[in-house]
Design goal:
Length: 95
């Protein structure tokens, strides 16, 4: 198991830290099993601000992943679908 560093926009970092965003969506997953994520908040903060435990990984079509995660996605459906446009598979770290 390993720890990875992910760059995340400050608005999403805040949602993760307050608990309203419990999934971090990615187009690709790390090759190794991830136990912990160090969160790097992008500009204007530009620093590591937190460490979170990974409770699991989800993999599905974007539509099905949204149906599973939307309550605690911390992102709008429109932004989610835009992020995964032209993708057959979507991933999420469950935080």
């Amino acid at each position: 198991m390993s720890t990875i560093l992910l760059s995340i926009k400050p608005e999403y970092v805040r949602r993760i830290l307050e608990g309203s965003k419990r999934f971090e969506f990615r187009r690709q997953m790390a090759k190794r099993k991830v136990e912990r994520i160090l969160i790097y908040s992008t500009a204007p903060e530009m620093k590591v601000v937190a460490s979170v435990e990974v409770l699991g990984v989800l993999k599905d079509s974007p539509k099905k992943l949204w149906e599973t995660t939307h309550t605690y996605a911390g992102i709008s459906r429109q932004k989610f679908m835009g992020y995964f446009s032209n993708r057959m598979v979507a991933y999420a770290y469950r935080l």
